[in-house]
């Protein structure tokens, strides 16, 4: 490492530039570290020149990147044009699980190493998912709103409408990655019988957690269904009207994964008909959700604005994972979280 190495720590309002700098300093990185920031989350992420969910002006990024060998960022638009305009760039570290704001093919073609920070918000999203499961089952947001509006609804103590308990219930998980396994563990401790459907699972499950081979089987048995799968082109609309119809009457559905996995009209239909008791979603079919959207008019659903992964710890975890890979790279070692290993393989 050398102070002649230049790093741009491009932060935003969540992963602050100061956090990126501090994480690099903790790793003992000896380099000239410049910092800058974009306006996310106060302005939304957009698609820019072939990259997704990015924020910031590419021209401004290019200006700040001149002479830099490493870009350390969260949401900056790392397009092919940006890379072409920054010939010294050798490494890009994206502080996200999916580095969608970097043109991976263009980086690989140009020999630029790209790293991500998988699992950075696993704990935060797990906690939010658990809160959504409990909040939906107990209808906390709805009772709070009614009470603040002057309604005292003692009629909710009627047997026909009281909430289910998680203790002794069956909780089905679609997806058993970093978040799913944490949710499964807590649900098991609570006393639920936990089912897991994950076609990519190739490990033994802990005692008390049952693997289910067919999604339909899991749906038929789940009093609570919680989605934790990674979105792919193959699983769009994974949970639609047919799948929801298989769930027991009075069950609960929670989605804190990706909106493409769930048919939201089918969800609303099932809530309107009473087939589902309740639902909760942190990921939505449009973000921001339009004021007239059906989800805002459907009873017994709790929605939050895609912030399950937001926590102070998540920002620091991402920065520290990324900084460790930068330190390895600058020391001539292969970083842990390379997402385009072809760059190394091609180099021999």
General description of the model:
The longest helix has 19 residues, at 312-330. The chain has twelve helices and 14 strands. The chain has two domains: 6-120 and 311-346, NAD(P)-binding Rossmann-like Domain (Rossmann fold, 3-Layer(aba) Sandwich), CATH 3.40.50; 122-303, NAD(P)-binding Rossmann-like Domain (Rossmann fold, 3-Layer(aba) Sandwich), CATH 3.40.50. It has 348 residues and is of the alpha/beta class. The two termini are 22 Å apart. Strand 1, helix 1 and strand 2 form a beta-alpha-beta unit. It has helices spanning 17-26, 58-65, 80-84, 104-109, 122-138, 140-148, 178-190, 215-221, 241-246, 264-273, 312-330, 342-346, and strands at residues 6-11, 32-37, 46-48, 51-54, 70-73, 91-94, 113-115, 170-174, 193-197, 209-211, 224-227, 251-255, 276-281, 301-303.
Reported by name, the CATH topology of the largest domain is Rossmann fold
Amount of beta strand: 15-25%
Widest beta sheet: strand line-up: 10-9-8-11-12-13-14
What is the CA-atom radius of gyration, in angstroms?
A: 23 Å
The CATH level-2 architecture of the largest domain is identified as 3-Layer(aba) Sandwich
What's the overall geometry?
elongated
Distance between the termini: 22 Å
CATH class of the largest domain: Alpha Beta
- The run of helices and strands is EHEEEHEHEHEHHEHEEHEHEHEEHH
Largest sheet: 7 strands, parallel
Which consecutive residue ranges, at least 5 long each, have pLDDT under 50? Answer: none
CATH superfamily membership of the largest domain? NAD(P)-binding Rossmann-like Domain
User: What is the helix content?
Assistant: 25-40%
* Class based on secondary structure composition and strand pairing: alpha/beta
How many strands in all? 14
* Arithmetic mean of pLDDT: 96
Structurally, the number of domains stands at 2
Count of runs of 4 or more consecutive helical residues: 12
């Amino acid at each position: 490492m050398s102070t002649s190495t230049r790093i741009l720590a491009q932060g935003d309002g969540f992963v602050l530039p100061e956090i990126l700098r501090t994480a690099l300093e903790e790793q003992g990185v000896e380099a000239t570290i410049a910092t800058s920031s974009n306006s996310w989350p106060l302005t939304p992420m957009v698609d820019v020149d072939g990259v997704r969910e990015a924020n910031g002006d590419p021209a401004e990024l290019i200006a700040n990147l001149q002479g830099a060998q490493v870009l350390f960022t969260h949401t900056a638009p790392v397009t092919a044009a940006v890379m072409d305009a920054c010939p010294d760039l050798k490494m890009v570290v994206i502080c996200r699980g999916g580095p969608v704001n970097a043109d991976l093919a263009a980086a690989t073609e140009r020999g630029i190493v790209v790293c991500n920070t998988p699992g950075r918000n696993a704990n935060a999203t797990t906690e939010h998912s658990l809160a959504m499961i409990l909040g939906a089952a107990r209808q906390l947001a709805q009772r709070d709103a009614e009470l603040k509006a002057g309604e005292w609804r003692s009629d909710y103590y009627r047997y026909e409408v009281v909430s289910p308990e998680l203790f002794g219930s069956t909780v089905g998980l679609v997806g058993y990655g970093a978040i799913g396994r944490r949710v499964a563990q807590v649900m098991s401790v609570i006393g639920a019988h936990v089912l897991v459907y994950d076609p990519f699972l190739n490990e033994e499950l802990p005692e008390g957690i049952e693997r289910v081979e067919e999604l339909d089987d899991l749906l038929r048995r789940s009093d609570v269904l919680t989605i934790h799968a990674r979105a792919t082109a193959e699983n769009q609309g994974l949970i639609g009207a047919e799948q929801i119809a298989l769930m027991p009457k009075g069950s609960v559905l929670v989605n804190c994964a990706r909106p493409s996995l769930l048919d939201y009209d089918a969800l609303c239909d099932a809530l309107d008909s009473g087939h589902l008791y309740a639902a909760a979603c942190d990921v939505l079919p449009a973000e921001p959700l339009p004021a007239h959207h059906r989800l805002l008019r459907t009873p017994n659903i709790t929605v939050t604005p895609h912030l399950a992964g937001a926590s102070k710890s998540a920002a620091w975890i991402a920065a520290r994972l990324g900084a460790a890979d930068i330190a390895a790279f600058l020391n001539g070692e292969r970083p842990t979280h390379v997402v385009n290993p072809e760059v190394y393989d091609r180099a021999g």
